[in-house]
Specification:
It is a single chain. By secondary structure, the chain is mainly β. The chain has a 22-stranded antiparallel β-barrel. It has a 5-stranded mixed beta sheet with strand order 3-8-9-6-7. A 4-stranded antiparallel beta sheet has the order 33-34-35-40, with no helix packed on it. The two termini are 42 Å apart.
Length: 1002
C-alpha cells in the first residue's frame, strides 16, 4: 500500500504524545512501572534499578499473545537501538539484527547470542516465542565487554522458561492455523503494450530480417489489435499466488515439587511458501530440569533439539543476474503463443534468444532442500559456599548440522551450460562447540555499602568439518530424488572429470578470564568496573590476547531528599559508561597458507584433466589481531506519576578501530585479498524508550510502549585499503557483474550508493536534425551519455539523459556521485495493548525514516540491454515512441515531438545495467506488523471445564505498509554484506499472514 510518506511523521509524533494524555484521569492509581524488573547482565541477574549500563529488555508478557513462527519477528520494533528486519519474505528467511548501527565493514555485524548461559549462533531462528522468558540486549561496551570476544556488536541474552518449584503440573497448548498471500506485485506491460514495444525494437533500425522476424512471431502491425483481447498470463500470480497454509503447534508442560522444577516444550511448524515448491518445517523440543540437592547445592539440566528444513530455490541467491529467478516471472512474455513451442513447454531457442525460461517450468525444475539440526545440552551446578560466596559452573555442548541438496533440471541455465544435463549441488557442514564457564560471586552489605564481586573463567572450544560436492552430467530423465540418492549415476563425457569434493575444518579455541566489581553506596551511588582477557586461536602467535576493560557509574537521583517525596518524579537515575569490547570474527588459520584442490585449477595430461591445487585468493597475514570497539554512553532512566509513565534516554558513541577488513591488495602479489587490521568507524546516536499505562480501570486497560532511535555511522579511516590517490574505494553489490555501485569513503557512512544522477531524457531540442539523411545529432554543448547509458550507441531523442557533473560535455565515470545511503535518520516501533473485560487487542507498528533503498529490480525491468522479447515494467508504457498509430516510424522533429507530447519516460537503455538515481528511492515506511484480537473465557467458566485458561485469537501479520517505495518491500536486503545494504534485487515477495488460534492451559 503506497501513501504519502509525510503521514508517517505525523503518526510518529502522535504516538509519543499519547502516553502523556489521560494521565490526570487516574493519578491516584497504584504504582505501575517496569523499573522494578530483574534483568540478566553479564553472568548474573541485577535489579533494573541498579543497572548502570545500556540494556534493552523484552519479557515474556510482552510477546506471549503474539503468535509467530520466528522469535526475531516477535521482538521487531520493541527495543531502542535494535533493528530487526527480514531480508526477504521466503519461508525461514534470514533475520538481520543490528545493534546501534553495526561496527564492522566487511565482517559480520550480528550480535553474540547467549541462550541459558551457552553461546549459540543465530539463536532466535531456532526458538519459539512461546518458550522465551526474557530477552536482554546489552548495547554498550561497559556491559558487553564482560563477554569479550564478539561482544563488539552487542550481546543478546536469552532465558527460556522453566518450571516452578512447589507448583502443580500445568499443560499448555497453543496452536494456530493460517494462510499467507502475496501482498503486492510488480506491474508489467500487458499483452498489447508488450507487442507494441517489441514492434518498436524489431522495426526501429529498419533491418529487414528483424522486421520479418517480428511478423513471423507476432503478426503484421494491422493484426496487433488482437492482443488487446488476448488472455494475459500473470506469471507472478502463477509462481507466487498460491494460498500458503501454516500449521503451528506449541505444547508446554511445567511443574515442580518441593525441591525440583521441570518444563518440557514441543514445537511443530509446517508452512507452505507462496512460491511454487517452497516451504518450511521445524520440529523442536526443549527440556529443563532444576533440582535442589541440598540447601547449598543445586543443579540445572537443559536439553534442546531443533530440526528444520527450508524447501525451494527461492528467487535469487546473493549472486548476479544469472541466478535471478524473479526476473523470469516479471519479464517472460505475458500471453500464450508467439513461439513454435507451446508456452508451457521448454523452448531452448527462445531461452537462448531471451535469456528467459518459463517461470513455472523453472520453479518445477529446481529442487532445493536446506536443512539445519541444532542440539544444545547444558548443565549448571551452583554451590552456596556461605551466605556471601556462590560458585557457579556451566558446561554446554552445541552441535549444528547443516546440509544443502540442490537439483538443477535440464531447463535451468546451469544444466544448459553442462551439456543440457542435470547438475546436483551437495554440501554438509557440522560445527561443535563445548563451553565451560566457572564463576565465583561474592555479595555482602556493610551498613550503607553494598558490594558485589564476580570472578570468572571461560573456555570455548569449536570444531567442525564441511564437505561440498558439485556433481554434473546426470541422465536427462533422472528426478531430483533419484539424483540425491544415486550420485554415482552421473557420468562425465569423454575426457572430462567431475570437480573434486572440497572439504574443510574450522577449529577455533577461546580462553577467557574476567572479573567485575559492583559497588552501591546508600542505595544512591553505583560504580561498576569490569575486565576481560580473551585469547583466540584465529590469530597468530603474539597477537592472540585481547584485553577489554570497562567502567560505569549511576546516580539514583530520585533517592535524594529533594526528590524523595515528589508527586511527579517517582524514578530518576543518571548513568554513564565507558568500555572496550572485541571482535575476532574471521576464519581460522588466515595467518598461514593452505592449499585447496579442484578440477577448475587442473591441467591437461594426455586426454584427461588432472585436478590441480591452489592457495586461493586470500593472502596470509601473520600480523592480524583483535578488532576493538570503544563505547561511551550517557543515559537517563525515569518514571513519572508513580510509574504511570516510564522510559529511558541514551546518548552513545562507539569508535571501532583495527577493523578486520578483507582488503583488496595489488594483483602483483598473486592474490586478490588479505585480512588486515585496517581502518576505523564511528557510530553515534540517541535512543528514547517510553511506556505508559494510559488507562487502568477494572474492566479496561490501555498500555503503550514506544521507542525511537537515531544512529549516525561514519567511516573514519580505511587504512591501507583506500586507493593511492584518495581516501576511498569502490565496491560491487554483485547483482550485475563488474558494476562498482557502492562507495566506501572516509567521512561517509557504510552503504553509500555510487552512480549517476538521472536527468530525464533527451528531447528534440537537444538535437540538430538533417532532413536529407534523417539523422539526429546532439547539439554542441549537450552532454553525451552514450558510453555510460546506451552501450556506446549514438544518442537519439528519447534516450536516457544523465547529469554532467564535471561539465566536460561527456558522461563517464567522472560524473558518478554519492546517491544517498541505506542508513535511516531514525527508526523504531510502538506497541499498544487493550483489554476490555475478557477481550484483548494489540497493535504492533515499526517504522523507519530517511533511509534510501537501491531498487535494482526497477533498473533491470526498465533497461532493454541485449535481449528482445522481454517484458518490462509498466512504466515503460509511458516511454518515448517512434511509431505512430499506423505503425509508421516518425522522423520529422515536429511530428515526433507531437507524438511524445504526453509521454514522460525515456526509451529503455540499450547499454549494460548501471546505477542511476532513478533506482534510488526513499525507503521510509510505517508498517502495522501485527494486529491480534483475543477472547478469554471467564475464570468461573474455565474452572468448570477443568481449565485455568482458554483463549481464542485472530491475528494478521504484515497488515499494511505506508510507504512511497515502489518495490515489493522497503526492508528488502538481499546482498548479505555490510558494505552493500539496502539492495532490493530479486527478493522473495513479502506476504500477508492471516491466522486464528487457540491457547488452552490445563
Amino acid at each position: 500500500m503506497n501513501k504519502k510518506v509525510h503521514s508517517i511523521k505525523w503518526l510518529y509524533l502522535t504516538v509519543f504524545l499519547l502516553p502523556v494524555l489521560g494521565l490526570a484521569q487516574e493519578k491516584g492509581k497504584e504504582k505501575e512501572t517496569n523499573i522494578d524488573e530483574v534483568v540478566l547482565v553479564g553472568y548474573t541477574k541485577v535489579s533494573k534499578k541498579d543497572v548502570t549500563n545500556a540494556v534493552s529488555s523484552v519479557k515474556a508478557e510482552a510477546i506471549k499473545d503474539m503468535p509467530s513462527t520466528n522469535a526475531a519477528e516477535a521482538i521487531q520494533g520493541r527495543m531502542a537501538g535494535v533493528r530487526v528486519a527480514l531480508s526477504e519474505g521466503s519461508p525461514g528467511a534470514d533475520v538481520d539484527i543490528v545493534i546501534r548501527g553495526g561496527n564492522s565493514i566487511t565482517g559480520s555485524n550480528a550480535p553474540l547470542y547467549i541462550v541459558d548461559g551457552v553461546q549459540m549462533d543465530n539463536a532466535l531462528s531456532i526458538l519459539s516465542p512461546k518458550e522465551i522468558e526474557s530477552i536482554e540486549v546489552l548495547k554498550d561496551a561497559s556491559s558487553t565487554n564482560i563477554y569479550g570476544a564478539r561482544g563488539a556488536n552487542g550481546v543478546v541474552l536469552i532465558t527460556t522458561k522453566g518450571g516452578r518449584k512447589r507448583a502443580k503440573t500445568s499443560i499448555n497448548y497453543n496452536g494456530f492455523l493460517g494462510v499467507r498471500k502475496i501482498q503486492n506485485t510488480i506491474d508489467v506491460l500487458d499483452p498489447y503494450q508488450y507487442v507494441l514495444y517489441q514492434y518498436e525494437l524489431y522495426n526501429k533500425a529498419g533491418v529487414q530480417t528483424d522486421i520479418d522476424a517480428f511478423a513471423a512471431r507476432y503478426g503484421a502491425y494491422n493484426q496487433l489489435d488482437k492482443y488487446k483481447d488476448i488472455k494475459k498470463r500473470d506469471w507472478q500470480d502463477e509462481v507466487f499466488g498460491r494460498d500458503a497454509f501454516n500449521f503451528t503447534h506449541n505444547l508446554g508442560i511445567t511443574g515442580g515439587s518441593e525441591n525440583s522444577a521441570f518444563s518440557l516444550t514441543l514445537n511443530n511448524i509446517q508452512e507452505d511458501g507462496i512460491m511454487i515448491g517452497s516451504g518450511f518445517k521445524r520440529n523442536m523440543a526443549n527440556f529443563k530440569y532444576d533440582y535442589d540437592l541440598s540447601k547449598k547445592l543445586s543443579m540445572s539440566l537443559n536439553a534442546r533439539y531443533s530440526r528444520q528444513t527450508i524447501f525451494g530455490a527461492g528467487t535469487s541467491s546473493t549472486g548476479s543476474q544469472s541466478s535471478n529467478r524473479l526476473r523470469n516471472a516479471v519479464r517472460y512474455q505475458p500471453f500464450e503463443g508467439g513461439s513454435t513451442v507451446n508456452v508451457d513447454e521448454f523452448d531452448p531457442l527462445f531461452a537462448d534468444q531471451t535469456n528467459l525460461v518459463n517461470p513455472v517450468l523453472l520453479a518445477n525444475s529446481e529442487v532445493k532442500e536446506s536443512g539445519r539440526n541444532d542440539l544444545l545440552l547444558n548443565g549448571v551446578i551452583e554451590y552456596k559456599i556461605n551466605k556471601n560466596f556462590t560458585f557457579r559452573s556451566v558446561i554446554g555442548y552445541v552441535q549444528r548440522d547443516e546440509f544443502v541438496n540442490q537439483f538443477s533440471g535440464t531447463v535451468t541455465s546451469l544444466a544448459r551450460q553442462n551439456n543440457d544435463q542435470p547438475v546436483v549441488f551437495l554440501s554438509k557442514t557440522q560445527t561443535r562447540r563445548i563451553t565451560n564457564t566457572n564463576t565465583l560471586n561474592f555479595k555482602k552489605t556493610f551498613g550503607k555499602h553494598k558490594l558485589d564481586l564476580l570472578a570468572g573463567q571461560e573456555t570455548v572450544k569449536t570444531d567442525g568439518e564441511s564437505l561440498v560436492m558439485n556433481i554434473k552430467w546426470f541422465p536427462k530423465s533422472i528426478t531430483a530424488e533419484e539424483a540425491f540418492a544415486n550420485i554415482q549415476s552421473a557420468s562425465p563425457p569423454s575426457g572430462l572429470v567431475q570437480d573434486a569434493p572440497r572439504a574443510g575444518r574450522v577449529p577455533d579455541r577461546l580462553a577467557s578470564f574476567f572479573g567485575r566489581v559492583n559497588y552501591i553506596y546508600n542505595n544512591k551511588y553505583i560504580i561498576t568496573a569490569s575486565m576481560r582477557a580473551d585469547g583466540s586461536s584465529v590469530f597468530g602467535p603474539g597477537n592472540r590476547w585481547g584485553y577489554f576493560p570497562a567502567a560505569s557509574v549511576a546516580w539514583k537521583v530520585a533517592e535524594e531528599n529533594f526528590l524523595k517525596d515528589s508527586e511527579t518524579i517517582s524514578e530518576l537515575k543518571l548513568r554513564a559508561g565507558y568500555g572496550l569490547s572485541g571482535n575476532n570474527r574471521i576464519g581460522s588459520f588466515l595467518y598461514d597458507t593452505f592449499f585447496t584442490t579442484s578440477s577448475d585449477y587442473g591441467y591437461a595430461f594426455g586426454t584427461n584433466v588432472t585436478p590441480g591445487a591452489t592457495t586461493g585468493n586470500i593472502l596470509a597475514n601473520k600480523g592480524v589481531k583483535w578488532e576493538s570497539a570503544t563505547s561511551k554512553n550517557i543515559g537517563l532512566d525515569f518514571g513519572l506519576f508513580k510509574g504511570r509513565v516510564y522510559g529511558t534516554l541514551d546518548f552513545y558513541q562507539t569508535d571501532t578501530k583495527d577493523l578486520l577488513l578483507l582488503a583488496k591488495i595489488p594483483q602483483t602479489t598473486g592474490y586478490e585479498f588479505q585480512y588486515q587490521n585496517s581502518g576505523s568507524t564511528t557510530n553515534k546516536g540517541v535512543e528514547l524508550t517510553l511506556g505508559s499505562t494510559i488507562i487502568n480501570k477494572d474492566n479496561f486497560t490501555w498500555k503503550i510502549d514506544a521507542n525511537i532511535s537515531s544512529n549516525e555511522n561514519t567511516i573514519k579511516s580505511l587504512g591501507n585499503n583506500a586507493s593511492a590517490s584518495a581516501d576511498y574505494y569502490l565496491y560491487p553489490s554483485g547483482w550485475q557483474n563488474n558494476l562498482n555501485d557502492f562507495l566506501v569513503q572516509v567521512g561517509k557512512p557504510v552503504g553509500t550508493y555510487w552512480g549517476y544522477v538521472t536527468a530525464g531524457r533527451y528531447e528534440i531540442s537537444d538535437f540538430d536534425y538533417n532532413a536529407t539523411t534523417q539523422v539526429y545529432t546532439l547539439k554542441a554543448g549537450v552532454p553525451n551519455a552514450a558510453s555510460a547509458a546506451n552501450g556506446a550507441k549514438a544518442i537519439q531523442p528519447g534516450d536516457l539523459k544523465l547529469t554532467d557533473l564535471n561539465g566536460d560535455g561527456n558522461i563517464d565515470n567522472k560524473d558518478m556521485t554519492d546517491l544517498g545511503n541505506a542508513q535511516p535518520k531514525f527508526y523504531g516501533g510502538f506497541n499498544q495493548t487493550f483489554r476490555y473485560k475478557n477481550w484483548d487487542m494489540s497493535l504492533m507498528f515499526n517504522f523507519s525514516v530517511g533511509n534510501k533503498v537501491y531498487n535494482a529490480n526497477k533498473l533491470e525491468y526498465s533497461t532493454q540491454y541485449l535481449y528482445k522479447d522481454n517484458n518490462m515494467s509498466a512504466d515503460v508504457a509511458d516511454r518515448w515512441k517512434w511509431f505512430d498509430n499506423n505503425g509508421v516510424k516518425v522522423n520529422d522533429p515536429t511530428a515526433l515531438a507531437a507524438l511524445n507530447a504526453n509521454t514522460t519516460m525515456w526509451t529503455p537503455p540499450a547499454g549494460a545495467y548501471f546505477l542511476h538515481s532513478y533506482g534510488i528511492e526513499d525507503g521510509s515506511f510505517l508498517r502495522l506488523n501485527n494486529v491480534t484480537l483475543g477472547y478469554s473465557l471467564g475464570k468461573d467458566f474455565t474452572k468448570q471445564l477443568g481449565l485455568s485458561n482458554f483463549r481464542l485469537y485472530f491475528t494478521m501479520n504484515n497488515v499494511f505498509t505506508i510507504t512511497g517505495y515502489s518495490g515489493y518491500d522497503p526492508e528488502a536486503n538481499t546482498r548479505r554484506n555490510p558494505l552493500t545494504p539496502g539492495v532490493d534485487y530479486a527478493a522473495y515477495p513479502r506476504s500477508r499472514f492471516i491466522l486464528s488460534g487457540i491457547d488452552i492451559t490445563f
